[in-house]
Amino acid sequence: MTHDAIVIGGGLVGAAIAHGLRGQGLGTVLLDEGDIAHRASRGNFGLVWVQSKGLGAPWYQRWTRGSAGEWPGLAADLAARTGIDTALSQPGGVHLCLSEAEFDDRAERMARMQAESGNHGYDYRMIRAPELRDMLPGLGPKVVGASWTPYDGHASPLGLLQALHRAFTEAGGAYIPNAKVTAATAAPHDFRVETAAGAFAAPRIVLAAGLGNADLAPLFGLNTPVRPQRGQILVTERARSILSMPTTTIRQTGEGTIMLGDSMEEVGFDTRQSPPVMAEIARRAALSFPWVAELNVIRAWSALRVMAPDGLPIYDQSDRFPGAFTANCHSGVTLAGAHARLLAPMIAAGALDPMLAPFSAKRFDVPRAA
Questions:
Q1: pLDDT tens-digit map of 78-132
Q2: Is 75 exposed, middle or buried (0-12, 13-18, 19+ CB in 10 A)?
Q3: CA neighbor of 347 nearest in space, from 364, 322, 328
Q4: For residue 180, which of 46, 359, 50, 10 has the smallest C-alpha distance?
Q5: Of 361, 94, 99, nearest in space to 245 by CA
Q6: Long-range contacts formed by 268-277: CB under 8 A, 24+ apart
């Protein structure tokens, strides 16, 4: 079956791009592996987060801020098309510091981020505990301060995923589940993939299969050296509305539950949960907000981030097979606005904007200095 574009990967990244391509008028098929896939989209913490992204990589800072700026339009568009509320809230956000050393380190990082932003500007404040306690009631005595930026927020990852899929299919996009790619052929602007659900052909193809991109990319003359990084999340019972804004590791959902996440583990494809790590997440959360310790944890899970060697996204078009693109990141919620409303039009037009050149995997080809 021939389409204008094939997108491989039905998670947040692939669904956002597919939705954007359909919005550009392209007949698009979205191939999803199914429930055997590592569903990072369903383990996402849900932040639309700017302040921790892009230190030493100002192009990533700009891309992230651009996506945060596109989010309100994306949320409104999805709500109008599907009636699904993605629970977007962008009141700003804070990164809590539990010691003077953490506060000093954070202040240095934020100052560097602002300096690296150049003419694009970067608004932030370092806030000491007394003022912070007026902003976030119930803050623990161990918190000495925080960094704050106005760009941050959060949303519902599951609501976003459902809305993207529904908007895509109701606009005429073809969603094919249980369609793991088993074989592929590539020529410039001429691609064919074989799956258990049939064969598909198109002059454009987008690899957005998360960790699966590592094996898929070479078939299309691309390179995506991504690895899994495990993160764990705890969720408490519902509480009255108390957190007016999200923090890097603690946020209150629209339903009232409190999500806690504060871990990065290099354990390969091991998706088991680790009690010591879960205990540390709970300990730091209780130090930040002692009232959290009075709530019952009702759910917990782990998921695998899609990490490049330097932690930054990878966006590329194949030099050998023009028309083949790849998109890789561990920020499917934060970057949804950019993927749907900035990246997809570039792919539809047939070329990535030069501003994405620093995200090419070619950055890993530079030989190390002796």
A1: 999 999 999 999 999 999 999 999 999 999 999 999 999 988 889 999 999 999 9
A2: buried
A3: 322
A4: 10
A5: 94
A6: 268/228, 269/38, 269/211, 269/228, 269/304, 270/230, 271/38, 271/230, 271/302, 271/303, 271/304, 272/302, 273/232, 273/300, 273/301, 273/302, 274/232, 274/302, 277/232
Buried b (16+ CB within 10 A) or exposed e, 136-163: beebbeebbbbbbbebbbbbbbbbbbbb
For 349, the token pair is 């037009």
Q: Give CA–CA dist 185/181, Å, rounded.
A: 11
Q: CA-CA distance, 318 to 188, in Å (whole number)?
A: 9
Question: Sign (positive/negative) of CA torsion 292, 293, 295, 301?
Answer: positive
Closest CA to 207 of 199, 215, 198: 215
pLDDT in tens, 173-215: 999 999 999 999 999 999 999 999 999 999 999 999 999 999 9
Phi, psi of 359 (to 5 degrees): -85, -5
Count of other CB atoms within 10 angstroms of residue 237: 12
**Torsion-angle region of 25 (φ positive above 0: left; ψ -120 to 50: alpha; else: beta):** left
φ, ψ (nearest 5 deg) of residue 96: -80, 145
- Both tokens of 108, joined, read 């240095």
Locate all alpha helices (DSSP H) within the chain, ordered by sequence. 12-23, 58-82, 100-116, 129-135, 157-170, 213-216, 275-288, 336-338, 344-349
Q: How many CB atoms lie within 10 A of CB 41?
A: 23
Q: Give the mean model confidence (pLDDT) for residues 272-277.
A: 94
| Beta strand pairing call for 125-128 and 28-31 | unpaired
Average pLDDT over residues 345-361: 98
pTM: 0.96
Would you state the structure tokens that stand for residue 204, as one six-digit string?
A: 């454009």
* Contact (Cβ atoms closer than 8 angstroms) between residue 246 and residue 45: no
